[in-house]
Specification:
By secondary structure, the chain is of the alpha/beta class. The chain is built from seven helices and seven strands; from the N terminus they run βαβαβαβαβαβαβα. The protein has one domain: Rossmann fold (3-Layer(aba) Sandwich). The longest helix is centred in the N-terminal third of the chain and has 15 residues. It starts with a strand and ends with a helix.
Length: 178
Amino acid sequence: MKIKIGIMGSAEQSQADELHDQARQLGQSVASHDVILLTGATTGSIYAAGKAARDAGALHLGISPAHDVVEHVERFGLPTDACDAIIYTGFGLKGRNVVLVRSCDIVLVLGGGMGSLNEFTIAYDEGKTIGCLTGTGGVADEIRHLVQVLNKPSKARIFYNDDPKELLDACLNGSSER
C-alpha cells in the first residue's frame, strides 16, 4: 500500500513568493516518491505544493470542508484544479482537518496559522510522523518550542529541516509505515 503524505499549512493567498517556491519544491519532492499526496484542497502555499506535485506526476487527493463542489467553490472559495480527486466531507474546516490528518501516514507542516496548529495537534495526538519545514514561518517554526513547553507525551516522531527534499527523506526513513 502506498504511503499517504499530507501537506499542511496556510491557505493565505497573500504570502511571499519565497514561501510559494518552498511549497512548490516540497510538492515536487513528494512527487519524486511513489506516494499519495493529501491536502485540504485549498489555496495559498498548500495550493502551490499540491499543484506542483500533481504537475510532476503525483496523485493528489484533496479533502474538502464542503459537502459538494458547489459549496467548495462558492462558500469556501476553494479551487478544484490542483487535485486529481476531492473528497467532500461536509464537516467544515475543523472537521475536515481530522479526516485529513487521520488519513495521512506522514504530515508535513509548511508555515501555517491556527488551522495548521489544529492539524499539527491532531497529528501529534495521533502519534504520526511529522515534518516541519523550518524557515517558512508560522506553526512550522514554532512546533519545536510548543512541544517543549507543553510537554505532552506522544508517540509522534517529529523532524525539522529547512530543505524540502531532506525533510521528506527524513520523514520517509523515520516512518513506521515504510
